[in-house]
Amino acid sequence: MKSSWHNWGSIEAVVNEPLGAFGWESSWLSVILMWLLLPINLLVGAIGGFVPFVYQGLSSVVMCSVQLGNPFYMMWIWWSYTFTLLTALVANSMSRLGLFLWERQAFGNGDYFWHGEGIWATTHPICNEILKSEQLRGPAFGAVTAPVPDLFPTKILIFLPNVGSDSEWKYIRSALHDTFLTHGAKAYQDRLVALREHVAQDWKNVTLQEMTKDVSRLQRLVAKSVFFMMLGVWIAEEEADVLTGWRTNASLFILPRLTQRFIFNYGINKVKKLRVDTVKIIEKYQLQDIFSRMNDFLPVKYRRDPVVRLCDEIMYVIGFAGIGGTSAMCETASAFMQVTTPKEFPASSVSFSRFDSAKKMIEAYKRKPFDYFKECCRIDPPVTSATSILKEDLAAVLGNSRHTFAAGTYRQYCLSLANRDPNVFKDPKVFDPTRAELDQALTWNGAFGTPGDDKTYPRLCPGRYLSLDVATTIFNVAVNREETVQLSPAQPAPAQPAPAKP
Question: Are the beta carbons of 134 and 140 closer than 8 angstroms?
C-alpha cells in the first residue's frame, strides 16, 4: 500500500461511531410506546393523512413541541404525526411533490407550511433569496434532525454552512470541484469523449422503450457513467448494481430516526452497508490516493482523520446527488419522451398538451438537450428541497395564524414548489422546454443558466454539468438507436446529435 494511504482508516469504524444528539421523540422508549399504542396511532394517522384541517392541527401541536425543545411529555404527538405523513404520502401517489402540494393546500396555500421540525418556503421569490444568501446549515434533512453518523456522515457538504470567507464548506466544495468537476479541463473532456463509446458498447440495443422498461439497467448505466467521469474507471456490472443503491434507497434517506427505529433500523443498516460497499469499490481499484491528495489540500483544521472519512463524505455526495439525482432525471426524461410519467409521480401534475407525441418530444430533445432535461427537472426535480437554518427571527403566516419563529429554526426551501410558482412560470404544469423563463428554475440550487449564476448562487450544484453531460450522452445513444430501427434498409441512419454546449 502506498505510504500516502498510511492514515486511510476503516470505513466500518466510521459508520459505527457513537450516535449524534437526538431528542426524546426519537428514543427507544418512544419507539416502544409507539408500538404499544399502534392501533390508536394508525387511526389518528389515517384520519390526519386525508383530512387537511386535522393534518394542520396535528402539525401545529408538533410545531409547539419543537418550539419547546421536544420535551419528554410531548413525544406522543410524533407517533400519530409519523403515520399522518405516511398516509398523506401514500394518498398522493407516493410522490413527494404530491405530498408537498397537499400540505401547502392544508395550510391555506400561503408562503409557508409546517412539516417535520421546520417551516417550508413555497414561493419562488422566497426560495430564490435563500439560495442567494449565505446559509446556516447543520445535520438536518427534510427539516428534521438527520440520523448521524449512521445514516448520514455528520459533515457532508449539504450539512456545512457557507457563512464567511473561511468556511469549511468553501474548502470542501473547492476540493471536490477541482478534483472531479472542472468541466473545461482536458481530462474531463477526454473522459466525456470516451464515455460515448462506453455507453454505446454497454447497452448496444438501448432504446427509449427499453430505458423505461428496464429501469434498473438504466440506473446501472448511470452509475457506471458517473463513476467513470469522476474517477476514470468503468466499473463492473455487479459494482454498478451496488451503486444503484444511491437511487433505489431514496425513500430511506428521508426517514427520521424515530421512523428508522420503528422499523428496527432496517433503512439505516441498508444505507450503512451501501456506504461501506461504496468505499470498498474505491479500495478495490486503489483510488485512495485521490482522497489523500484532497485531504492534504484542505487547511489543517479541516482535514479528516482518518482519510477514509473524507472518502465516505465525498462518495456520499457523488452517490446521493450524482448517481441518485442523475438516475432520477433520466427516468423522468425517458418517460416524458414517451408522453407518460415515471413511477411515483402524480400524472395530474404535468400536461403534455404542447408536446403530445414521442416524435415531438424527440425533436425538442434534439433541438436543445440541456433545455429538455432542465424542463424535465423543473416539472419533476430529483432534489425536491433542502434544509437551511433561520439566522434571525421570522414572522410568517401558517393557515390563518401568524407565528414568530426563532433564529435556529429549520427552514426548508421547497424547490419543487418554487419551480411551479405561477407568478414566474406561465402555465407551470405544462411541459415546455422552449419556455422563455426556463432558466429561472431553481432545480440545481439556483437559477442555472442565468448570467453569473455561479456568483449569484453560492451553493449552485457543482456537478450540474457532469449530470447533464452523462444524461445527454446516454440519451444521444438511445435516440440515435430509436431513429435507426425505424428506418427502412434503404435509408441512412441519422447522425448522432452532439451534446449542447453550456
Answer: no
Crossing angle of helices 215-231/186-202, nearest 10°? Answer: 150
Q: Which residues contact 414 (CB under 8 A, 6 or more apart)?
A: 100, 120, 121, 122, 127, 384, 385
Average pLDDT over residues 55-78: 96
Retrieve residue 128's grid coordinates: 430564490
- Whether the per-residue pLDDT at 50 is higher than 50: the answer is yes
Q: What are 107-166's pLDDT values in tens digits?
A: 999 999 999 999 999 999 999 999 999 999 999 999 999 999 999 999 999 999 999 999
**Cell, residue 319:** 452517490
Cα–Cα distance between 467 and 484 in angstroms, integer?
26
Sheet containing 385-389: order of strands: 112-115, 118-121, 410-414, 385-389
Look at residue 470 and give its three-state secondary structure: helix
Q: Summarize pLDDT for 390-423 with one digit per residue, the tens.
A: 999 999 999 889 999 999 999 999 999 999 999 9
Convert 289-317 into a string of H (helix), E (strand) and C (coil): HHHHHHHHHCCHHHCCCCHHHHHHHHHHH
Nearest to 474 by CA among 248, 212, 218, 229: 218
Cis omega (within 30 of 0) for bond into 153:
no
Q: Give burial (CB, 10 Å; 0-12/13-18/19+) of 487.
A: exposed
Q: Which CATH class is domain 3-36+92-486?
A: mainly alpha
In sequence order, what DSSP letters do the residues of 235-283 get, joined into one string?
--HHHHHHHTHHHHTHHHHT--HHHHHHTTTHHHHHHHHHHHHHHHHHH
| Residues with Cβ within 8 Å of residue 299, at least 6 apart in sequence | 171
Q: Does 327 score more than 70 pLDDT? A: yes
CB neighbours of residue 406 within 10 Å: 10
Using the predicted structure, report yes or no on whether residue 99 has a pLDDT greater than 60: yes
Q: How far apart are CA 183 and CA 489, in angstroms?
A: 39
